[in-house]
Design a protein that fits this description.
Mean pLDDT of chain B: 92
Order of helices and strands of chain A: HHHEHEHEHEHEHEHHH
CATH architecture of the largest domain in chain A: 3-Layer(aba) Sandwich
Distance between the termini of chain B: 12 Å
Mean pLDDT of chain A: 93
Radius of gyration of chain A: 23 Å
Number of helices of chain B: 7
Helix content of chain B: over 70%
Largest sheet of chain A: 6 strands, parallel
Number of helices of chain A: 11
Order of helices and strands of chain B: HHHHHHH
Structural class of chain B: mainly alpha
Strand content of chain A: 5-15%
Strand order of the largest sheet of chain A: 3-2-1-4-5-6
Oligomer: heterodimer
Low-confidence stretches of chain A: none
Radius of gyration of chain B: 27 Å
Structural class of chain A: alpha/beta
Number of strands of chain B: 0
Chain lengths: 286, 205
């Protein structure tokens, strides 16, 4: 009995560093072993894909809000790249917005990198607006004319010099608006944009905030939702299947995600079983 | 292995931050302070070049839009917060901001209450059995959760059972949130591990 207790105590008080090492290995090993992971897109991600195709058919530009900084880069950047690849491959013009100051350069770099892959030209095929505070007022102004808030684009050129913007002035001129963020900003877009101006809206969020946004899907305030790295992988899988575009970091991380989850599930199950066994043993002793 | 010095800098700081998992150490502290300093410095630069210069300084200096001096002064008054003696001056612009934010009330009510209630009321109980069951679960679940937060009547009998059901649904929702949180944290780790193995060490393609 005491030998059993010793083992139980050891396992229940295992050093957290051992747990860290096991989780690290479960995440790192799949990059070397490359196990095949089959990703099935959810209907909310498929809805975003279909809407992007519709934008290509109607030949209308889209707005993407790049509202993330380095702390959520791993989840939202693969999503941003997948959406941009889809847009540029179908010749959809993209207007980038940003309300998170620390993510400004990240967003500009991501847009430039993907545009380069498809030979797209800044100002003609895509443009990025600089960071502005008071996003609520900016979003309200956008419903009338974005020139009320913005006088120049990110690189400092006046908006009059940007050919892509010549016939654009408010939400009506865009097919849809997508916001990628780990913050409350998508809710702000819904409050000050969708509620008043009724445009098609999509959120790409971190997995942590996913449960917050499902009610907006059910109410029809959002037409699609991409959640976390898995959402990015789903979109990449659609691009691969339907347009034969190469997959990115979202898909690359899915095997690690699966293994990591498996390890955590095993830890939770084992921990609960050990806890239950020890409680039973203590009750028997009493 | 990468030849880009900035990749090496990023790798150094990634490892420095991860070193906290072993224990608190000077390397971690150093990385933490650098992160805070750079973030604030970057924020100041972005705010100056994207906001203050084009929207305040240049219009006043070049276009003679002197009316902008008023919001400029209001913004400057906020800086009095740092003073213990005359910090109250910052309450003036703050009062303006808080008063002005009243315009958010109707839109918040419409977005987060009226539309959500409408969506729950108008659930079409049609289609296959799964759609009907989902619709019913949303209606019953919403009502049960609302009953759980109704404290003017003792939670006994039918009300108690309904509240208990609502509480159970809330627990399921917290479980889903926790699951998503685990997923998010693992994703962040994947991002860093991929950076170290691919961009820095170049050991995976």
């Amino acid at each position: 009995m005491s030998n059993k207790n010793k083992w139980l105590d050891y396992l229940l008080n295992i050093d957290r560093k051992v747990v860290y090492v096991i989780i690290f290995l479960s995440v790192a090993l799949p990059f070397f072993l490359n196990p095949v992971v089959d990703i099935q897109p959810t209907k909310w991600v498929s809805a975003v894909y279909d809407e992007m195709e519709e934008a290509a058919r109607t030949n209308k530009p889209i707005i993407i809000g790049f509202d993330y900084d380095p702390s959520t880069l791993a989840e939202l950047d693969p999503m941003a790249k997948a959406l941009l690849r889809h847009a540029f491959s179908r010749n959809i013009k993209v207007l980038g917005l940003n309300f998170i100051a620390n993510g400004t350069s990240l967003a500009a770099t991501t847009m430039d990198d993907v545009a380069k892959e498809f030979g797209k030209e800044y100002g003609k095929d895509y443009v990025f607006f600089p960071y502005l505070p008071q996003y609520d007022l900016v979003l309200l102004n956008f419903g009338d004319n974005f020139r009320k808030s913005y006088t120049q684009e990110f690189r400092g050129q006046p908006l009059e010099n940007i050919p892509m913007l010549s016939n654009l002035q408010n939400y009506d001129d865009f097919h849809m608006v997508i916001d990628l963020s780990g913050t409350k900003l998508p809710t702000i877009y819904i409050m000050y944009g969708v509620t008043r101006y009724h445009f098609k809206f999509v959120t790409g969020c971190t997995a942590v905030s996913a449960t917050e946004y499902f009610p907006y899907l059910q109410s029809g305030q959002m037409i699609g939702l991409i959640t976390g790295m898995k959402g990015a992988a789903e979109y990449e899988s659609l691009l691969k299947t339907k347009l034969n575009l190469p997959t990115g970091d979202g898909m690359r991380g899915m095997a690690s995600q699966t293994w990591g989850h498996l390890v955590i599930i095993i830890f939770i199950v084992i921990g609960n079983i050990l806890y239950y066994v020890r409680r039973r043993m203590n009750m028997e002793i009493k | 292995m990468s030849h880009d010095p900035w990749v090496w800098v990023a790798a150094f700081f990634t490892i420095a931050i991860f070193s906290y998992l072993w224990k608190e150490n000077p390397l971690y502290r150093f990385a933490e302070h650098i992160l805070v300093g750079i973030s604030v410095g970057y924020l100041v630069c972005i705010t100056w070049f994207n906001v203050l210069q084009p929207k305040l300084v240049e219009p006043i200096m070049n276009n003679g839009e002197y009316v902008l001096i008023i919001p400029g002064i209001m913004a400057a008054l906020m800086l009095f917060r740092f003073s213990q003696k005359i910090g109250w001056i910052s309450f003036w612009p703050l009062a303006f901001l808080i008063g002005f934010s009243g315009y958010a009330i109707p839109t918040v009510i419409e977005t987060n209450m009226l539309t959500q209630i409408q969506a729950t009321v108008n659930i079409p109980l049609t289609g296959g059995w799964f759609e009907i069951a989902s619709g019913l679960l949303i209606i019953v679940g919403t009502l049960a959760c609302l009953v759980y937060f109704y404290f003017s009547y003792p939670h006994k009998g039918v009300v108690g059972k309904t509240a208990q059901f609502g509480s159970m649904l809330l627990m399921i929702s917290f479980g889903a949130s926790f699951g998503f949180t685990v997923m998010a944290r693992i994703s962040l780790l994947i991002g860093r591990v991929l950076f170290l193995l691919r961009d820095w060490l170049g050991v995976v393609s």
